[in-house]
């Protein structure tokens, strides 16, 4: 048994507060520091065991029971079960205990400071600080696939003072301590320092960061061995800390279930109260005391009336408790768990390039995928491929394009073209060299030679080993490769020297002194290098908004104009600047950096302050432009989401012009969209108050003009991060300015799409939270691919991660993960749609069948003197929800398809039919409840009038004169129960649209099982029972012909109103889904073969004598000549119509490059 947690608590609170501090000291090799250096305080840390399972052998039963009974339904049935054990109730405790047991059963595996040697391909046993490596430069390569899913090799660095250690003896001679922060779960953050003692000198302090920390679960690659020291072990490792689950999200369906449960609980209490009051009202007369056969003792009869009334109230609660569907929760859990596999198994959502399909990290939100109203998406890597290609660079106002075409010839890589001035001078040549050197030096790109990764050799070109670039940022690789095409090649980082090959084929060496890493707040990175001539140079690259304010000279206006032009074209831009440092300035910078890096507290804030001091007074060199192509079918996906009634917001850190170009390309904005700008530039010209109210008047005016036709509105809003901060500021200046948040939300409600640019990660989450908290409380979905998207993914109701090129942080923290953005279409429009209609039917059906089940029991009390006599046998009470009616609805909730998948993809508007929890609204719930009450009344009084005329037989038994059945309580109850089981099962069969062999097997098999069970239960004298009240009851009931006729008649009468209602509603006011069902029946087999509506192909040519259109991608698509559009199109082309497509204008043809694309009117059909 693991007592480490108890030990830690005792140590923290009992031994002394001074032990629990924000940092810890680790003694390497368990060696005490030299005398006088510092006080030696031995510390105890957890051993290296990790318990990754939720339960252990010791805590499984208590912890699991605690988790189970936190649910109100389970706790309720536990109370009912205890009441049945304590007091005399009309039903056996088994009737509540057995279902509860079934539900519970179904719903229900060091020493810090040690020096460790790890060899190649071994996994790190704990979190380690790298001391030395078999590689001469003190680096090692690691894969962290098991931690964050990234398969690329990452480089980690040994401490400079220990990197030369090669043998165990050398490592053992190390005398040092490590001070670091207490364990925390962030995989990408570590703050510490190492103090190295040399003889009696002052210890040498070196900073430690995430680049020195090897995480448990990672694997050593391409390195023979390493020496490292353990800092976090066991349950304190970052991997173990990440086992902790995220905050629980609850779906709208679950909230509706709980609301319905409260209503039924109130109905249950009302029934118990009514029966208790009526019982004592009926017994008020002395001649109507309780009958003798109730076996009440005299002591019980003499008890106080209040105690007796309360006991009777509890007894009635037990009698009617089955109206609360306890098995519904376990069925819902099974449906969610099993149903989630359909996403993982979907072959259309499998990506060949990644070799992975969609992943489900939680099954609790499946149905929420069918309720999304707002989609918040990142841009880079989500809408775009995050596969960068270098396009051009602007140096000191002059543009350079690699492989440019000049006079019909493609220039070589090294002979780049000057698009502005063809006569470079010495001054310009100096800036050109500085610019190219800056991009070859200011990065974190690694150069790798030939290597074997998972059996595949990389870096082989024409049989000869070559090098290739790798980096965590695709932008950096594109820039370095772009410089290589322009004649400057980055070679390697060796012994802390960066080597580049210039256009004169000369190798230049620069000593790398400091790297000021990129972060999303600064939006820039810098390096400080020392040239061979001894000059200190600070090179910086970053977003224009973070570079221009720090520039003191250079051709700012020319570069800014080029940057804006590239941004409008949708290219990603970066600005490059430099600064020469004197010896004193360099020493001052070193002092600021070292002081910040050695800090154990607030290291990030101190580093930010140091960077701010160093990165200033720049000389602007130029800018770069790289292209990030739109992902395949991203535009089609966004168009489908719009048709489905969802509002799509793009939240990005890019500049406005670049993001806007991507929005137009992805059809988020159309050319007819009226763009409303709420940006810093505009608020500088007008006050924020005036801009907001002006935009609000604009959208309200247009809405009033359009009347009730809201679809006619086509506004698009663009807002930047600075303005958003002002809008969300809690206290506005001036009392008359009102609440800016509400005005902003009102504007957004009237916009079909919103672009938020220059967003920090926290602002993305604030936007999502703002929309979630609005008065409509819409269901939100956030999708992204990088670590900067995690905050909004966690904030949204549903978070989806893209398995992109920026790591797997987003995928790890999401509820669902998909390979590409295009898969979101099927995730929502198909899987989400199915999940919602299935679980909505499941919930309503469970409440319906339990009303049918228990309301006859309520009516029966009026005919048995409110004596709490059960109407059904104990076996029927127990097995109704477990066996007789459970499997059909479970299977329905897994495989039902009210319309085909192709129809859902082709008609995104069908998603609107289920929006806003439409199938679980109160009117629908009341309809199902009233239907259950009606059916229950038919069951009870139909059987009652069947038994109306009775006579005594010669042997003293009571027999009905019209059915010749033996009359009795259990016969009466069995008849009602038989009609009940058949009716609720056939009701589900009538609601089923998608029939398979397994549907038939389960539905008819359940009815057959009920009959067989009843025959065995009443046909055999069971020795373990102390009563045989059901003996021969079922068989003699079935031996009566009129009883058979009565059963069929009662079932028909019960189902008839629901059938009539559906027929009338379908005929008079059909929904879009019902129209799609009718259309699907008229065209059997053809619907699934049609491509999605919004995916239109461009055709490069046609052949009039064939029934194919030849596509631009060398593929052909068959056409059916009976279709009106192909007939008209082929006839038009055969008659020599050429590209004059005016006669076909009703089909909305449009030219597309050298070919054409066409759209059918009305419901779109792609050909």
From TrEMBL:
Reaction equation(s) it catalyzes: ATP + H2O + phospholipidSide 1 = ADP + phosphate + phospholipidSide 2
Cofactor requirement: Mg(2+)
Topology with respect to the bilayer: Multi-pass membrane protein
One CC-aspect GO term: endoplasmic reticulum
Key words of the record: ATP-binding, Magnesium, Membrane, Metal-binding, Nucleotide-binding, Translocase, Transmembrane, Transmembrane helix
A Pfam family recorded for this sequence: Cation_ATPase
Compartment annotation: Membrane
EC id: 7.6.2.1
Family recorded in the similarity comment: Belongs to the cation transport ATPase (P-type) (TC 3.A.3) family. Type IV subfamily.
Annotated protein name in UniProt: Phospholipid-transporting ATPase
Species of origin: Oreochromis aureus
Upper taxonomic lineage: Eukaryota, Metazoa, Chordata, Craniata, Vertebrata
């Amino acid at each position: 048994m693991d007592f480490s947690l108890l030990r830690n608590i005792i140590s923290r609170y009992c031994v002394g507060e001074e032990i629990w501090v924000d940092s810890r000291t680790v003694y390497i090799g368990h060696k005490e520091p030299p005398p006088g250096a510092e006080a030696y305080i031995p510390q105890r840390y957890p051993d290296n065991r990790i318990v990754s399972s939720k339960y252990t052998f010791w805590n499984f039963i208590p912890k699991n029971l605690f988790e189970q009974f936190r649910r109100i339904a389970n706790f309720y049935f536990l109370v009912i079960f205890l009441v049945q054990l304590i007091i005399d109730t009309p039903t056996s405790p088994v009737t509540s205990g057995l279902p509860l047991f079934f539900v519970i059963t179904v719903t229900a595996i060091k020493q810090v400071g040690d020096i460790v040697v790890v060899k190649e391909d071994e996994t790190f046993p704990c979190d380690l600080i790298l001391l030395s490596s078999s590689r001469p430069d003190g680096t090692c390569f690691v894969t962290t696939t098991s931690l964050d899913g990234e398969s690329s090799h990452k480089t980690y660095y040994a401490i400079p003072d220990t990197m030369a250690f090669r043998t165990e003896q050398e490592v053992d001679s190390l005398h040092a301590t490590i001070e670091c922060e207490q364990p925390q779960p962030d995989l990408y953050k570590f703050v510490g320092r190492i103090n190295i003692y040399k003889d009696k000198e002052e210890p040498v302090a070196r900073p430690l960061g995430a680049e020195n920390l090897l995480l448990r679960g990672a694997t050593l690659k391409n390195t023979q061995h390493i020496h490292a020291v353990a800092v976090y072990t066991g349950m304190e490792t970052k991997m173990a800390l990440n086992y902790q689950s995220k905050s629980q999200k609850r779906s709208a369906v679950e909230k509706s279930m709980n609301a319905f449960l409260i209503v039924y609980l109130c109905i249950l209490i009302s029934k118990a109260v009514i029966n208790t009051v009526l019982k004592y009202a009926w017994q008020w007369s002395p001649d109507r005391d309780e009958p003798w056969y109730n076996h009440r003792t005299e002591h019980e009869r003499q008890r106080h009336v209040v105690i007796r009334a309360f006991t009777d109230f509890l007894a009635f609660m037990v009698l009617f408790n089955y109206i609360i569907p306890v098995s519904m929760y376990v069925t819902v859990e099974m449906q969610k768990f099993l149903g989630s596999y359909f996403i993982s198994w979907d072959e259309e959502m499998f990506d060949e390039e990644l070799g992975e399909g969609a992943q489900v990290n939680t099954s609790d939100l499946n149905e929420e995928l069918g309720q999304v109203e707002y989609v918040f998406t990142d841009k880079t890597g989500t809408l775009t491929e995050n596969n960068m290609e270098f396009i051009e660079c602007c140096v000191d106002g002059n543009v350079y394009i690699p492989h440019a075409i000049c006079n019909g010839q493609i220039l070589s890589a090294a002979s780049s073209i000057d698009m502005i001035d063809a006569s470079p001078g010495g001054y310009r040549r100096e800036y050109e060299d500085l610019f190219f050197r800056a991009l070859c030096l200011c990065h974190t790109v690694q150069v790798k030679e030939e290597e074997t990764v998972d059996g595949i050799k990389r870096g082989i070109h024409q049989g000869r080993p070559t090098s290739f670039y790798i980096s965590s940022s695709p932008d950096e690789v594109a820039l370095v490769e772009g410089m290589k095409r322009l004649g400057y090649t980055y070679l390697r980082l060796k012994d802390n020297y960066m080597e580049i090959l210039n256009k004169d084929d000369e190798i230049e060496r620069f000593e790398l002194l400091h790297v000021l890493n990129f972060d999303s707040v600064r939006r820039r990175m810098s390096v400080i290098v020392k040239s061979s001539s001894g000059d200190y140079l600070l090179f910086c690259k970053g977003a224009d908004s973070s570079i221009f304010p720090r520039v003191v000279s250079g051709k700012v206006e020319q570069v800014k104009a080029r940057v804006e032009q590239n941004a409008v074209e949708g290219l990603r831009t970066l600005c490059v600047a430099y600064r020469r440092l004197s010896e004193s300035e360099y020493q001052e910078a070193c002092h600021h950096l070292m002081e910040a890096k050695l800090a154990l507290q607030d290291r990030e804030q101190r580093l930010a302050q140091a960077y701010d001091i160093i990165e200033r007074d720049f000389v602007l060199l130029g800018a770069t432009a790289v292209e990030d192509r739109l992902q395949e079918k991203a535009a089609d996906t966004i168009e489908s989401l719009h048709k489905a009634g969802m509002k799509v917001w793009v939240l990005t850190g890019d500049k406005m012009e670049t993001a806007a170009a991507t929005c137009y390309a992805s059809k988020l904005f159309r050319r007819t969209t009226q763009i409303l700008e709420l940006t810093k530039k505009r608020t500088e010209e007008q006050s924020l108050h005036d801009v907001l109210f002006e935009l609000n008047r604009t959208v309200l005016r247009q809405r009033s003009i359009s009347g009730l036709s809201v679809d006619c509105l086509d506004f698009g809003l663009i807002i930047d991060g600075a303005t958003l901060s002002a809008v969300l500021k809690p206290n506005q200046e001036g009392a008359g300015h009102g609440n800016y948040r509400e005005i902003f939300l009102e504007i957004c409600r009237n916009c079909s799409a919103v672009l938020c640019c220059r967003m920090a990660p926290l602002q993305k989450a604030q936007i999502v939270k703002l929309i979630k908290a609005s008065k409509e409380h819409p269901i939100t979905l956030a999708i992204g691919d990088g670590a900067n998207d995690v905050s909004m993914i966690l904030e949204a109701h549903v978070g989806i991660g893209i398995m992109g090129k920026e790591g797997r942080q987003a995928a790890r923290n999401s509820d669902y993960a998909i390979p590409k953005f295009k898969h979101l279409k099927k995730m929502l429009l198909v899987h989400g749609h199915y999940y919602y209609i299935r679980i909505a039917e499941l919930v309503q059906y469970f409440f319906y069948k339990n009303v049918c089940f228990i309301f006859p029991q309520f009516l029966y009390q009026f005919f048995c003197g409110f004596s709490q006599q059960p109407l059904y046998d104990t076996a029927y009470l127990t097995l109704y929800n477990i066996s007789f009616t459970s499997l059909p609805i479970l299977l329905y909730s897994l495989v039902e398809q009210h319309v085909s998948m192709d129809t859902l993809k082709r008609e995104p508007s069908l998603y609107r039919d289920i929006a806003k929890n439409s199938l679980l609204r109160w009117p629908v719930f009341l309809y199902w409840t009233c239907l259950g009450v009606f059916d229950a009344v038919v069951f009870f009084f139909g059987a009652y009038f069947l038994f109306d005329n009775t006579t005594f037989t010669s042997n003293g038994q009571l027999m009905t004169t019209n059915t010749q059945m033996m009359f009795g309580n259990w016969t009466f109850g069995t008849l009602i129960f038989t009609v009940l089981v058949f009716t609720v099962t056939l009701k589900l069969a009538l609601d089923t649209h998608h029939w398979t062999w397994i549907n038939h097997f389960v539905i008819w098999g359940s009815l057959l099982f009920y009959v067989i069970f009843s025959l065995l239960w009443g046909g055999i004298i069971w020795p373990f029972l102390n009563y045989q009240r059901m003996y021969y009851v079922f068989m003699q009931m079935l031996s009566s012909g009129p009883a058979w006729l009565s059963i069929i008649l009662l079932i028909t009468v019960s189902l008839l109103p629901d059938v009539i209602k559906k027929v009338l509603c379908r005929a008079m006011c059909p929904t879009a889904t019902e129209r799609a069902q009718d259309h699907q029946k008229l065209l059997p087999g053809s619907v699934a073969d049609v491509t999605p509506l919004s995916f239109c192909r461009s055709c490069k040519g046609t052949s009039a004598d064939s029934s194919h259109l030849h596509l631009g991608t060398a593929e052909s698509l068959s056409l059916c000549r009976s279709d009106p559009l192909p007939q008209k199109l082929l006839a038009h082309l055969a008659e020599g119509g050429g590209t004059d497509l005016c006669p076909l204008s009703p089909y909305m043809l449009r030219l597309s490059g050298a070919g054409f694309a066409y759209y059918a009117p009305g419901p779109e059909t792609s050909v």
